[in-house]
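$ run holo --ligand "flavin-adenine dinucleotide" --emit C-alpha cells
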Amino acid sequence: MEPHAPSYYAATANPWPSRPALAGSLNVDVVVIGGGFTGLSAALHAAEAGFSVVLLEAHRIGWGASGRNGGQMIAGMRWAAPDLVAEFGRDRAARLIGLANTAGYMVRKRIERHGIACDLRSGHFQAAARPGHLDAMRRELDLLQDLLAYEGAEIVAPGDVGRVVASPIYHGGLLDTNGGHLHPLNYALGLAQAAEAAGVRICEGSAATAIDHTGPVRVTTAQGLVTASHAVLACDAFMGDLVPDLAAMTMPVANYNVATAPLGDAAARSLIPSGAAVADSKFVLNYYRLSADNRLIFGGGEKYSPRPPADVAGFVRPYLEQVFPQLQGVAIDHAWGGLVGVTLNRLPQFGRIGNSFYAHGWSGHGVLMTTLAGDLIAQAMRGHAERFDLFASLPRRAFPGGRWLRHPLYVAGMLYYALKDRL
Ligand SMILES: Cc1cc2nc3c(=O)[nH]c(=O)nc-3n(C[C@H](O)[C@H](O)[C@H](O)COP(=O)(O)OP(=O)(O)OC[C@H]3O[C@@H](n4cnc5c(N)ncnc54)[C@H](O)[C@@H]3O)c2cc1C
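-- output --
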C-alpha cells in the first residue's frame, strides 16, 4: 500500500487513520473497487439506499486523482453546449447538461450535510486565452440561458478581467458562480467518513487482483474474497489489468501541480480578487486558485511520457510565471503530479459488464461529475437506470493503435494540439 503522494493536500489533510485491509471472505450486496470520489459516492449512495457495501481501495482513500487534483469545481460537462447540441440535438443536450449541472448542488449539499471541512469557495472563471475564445464563451452562455434558463454566470469583458484575476494575458472570460473550488483530499476523506457512518466497510491496502462479473460478482484481493450482487468499478486512470477492455478505453495522462509558499492575505487577494478558481481556454490548460492559507495552487503543462519530470516545480514554474509575471521567483513549497483518465472524445464513459457498473474517463472534469455518478450508479442498482443510461448512451471509441501503439499515437495527436496553443 502506498501512502498519499507528498503534496499540499497530504500536508494539510484532516486526520484519517489507515483502515485495515480485507482479510477472509465477505458476502455483501455491493463491492466498490476504488476509493476516489466515484467509488466513495457510489458506496455512500448505495449504503443510504439500504445495500450492504464494502469498498476496496488499493492504497489510501483519495490516493488517486481525487486526492491530488486542482480542486476546481467546473459546472456542466467537458464539451461546450454548442458542441453537445450539434452532436446530440437540443433535447438530449439539454438533458445531459441539466443533469450534469445538478452535480454542483449535490457536492455542496454533501459538504453541508456531513460538515466536511474542505475549504469550499464559490466561483469559477474560464479565462479567454485568445480573443476568439471569448466569442465562443458568449455563444456558450447564450445557449445555456436559452436551453436551461441558466443563472449565475456572466461574461467578463477584456477590460474587466482585473476584477477577477490580475494576469495581463487574458481577453475576457466567463465567470460562473455555479462553479467553485475545494480541498479535494479533504472532500474525499469527508465522503469516506460519511460512507462509514452510513454503514460502508472501507478496506485500504486492498487491491482487487481479479474480478468475475458473471452471476454474483466475485472480487479477489491478496488476502480476501468478496462475493456481491453488484460491483462498482471506480478505478478511472488506474484500471490497469483488472478489466483490460475498459483500460483500453482511457489514457492515463500525467498532470502536475504546485503550491507556492503562503503569499499573505493582501497579496493573495490582489492576485485573484474574485477568489474564484481560474482555468484558461487553451488545449493544454493552466488552472489555479488560492488555498485557504493564501497559497497559489497552480497546475500547468502535461507530460506524455510515463516518467515524471525530475524537478516537478521547475516543470510547472514557467507556466505560472507566464500567467503571473509578478510572481517571478516565488517560493514553491509543494509540487506533485497525478494521472488524469482521458477518453478519446473527452466524454465520460458509463456502463455495465454483467453485474458490474462503471463510470470513468472524466478527462480532467471529474471533481463534480464523480459525486453525481455515484448517485446514478446507486439508482441504477435499485432499478432506476434512466439517468445512468443517459450517460451510458454517450458515444465512445477505443484509442487507435492497440495496446502497444496507442500511447505513441496519442502523444503525436497531443503534441499537435499543444503546438496549436502556441501558434
Ligand atoms: C493533477 C490533476 C488535476 C486535476 N484537476 C482537476 C480539476 O481541477 N477539476 C476537475 O474537475 N478534475 C480535475 N482532475 C480530474 C479529477 O481529479 C478526476 O476526474 C477524479 O478525481 C476521478 O475520480 P475517480 O474516483 O473516478 O478516480 P480516482 O480518484 O483516480 O480513484 C481511483 C482509485 O481506484 C483505486 N484503484 C485502482 N485500481 C484498483 C484496484 N484494482 N483495487 C482497488 N483499488 C483500485 C486507486 O488506488 C484510486 O485511489 C484532475 C486530475 C489530476 C490528476
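-- notes --
Residues 121-180+251-343 form a domain with the D-Amino Acid Oxidase; Chain A, domain 2 fold (CATH 3.30.9.10).
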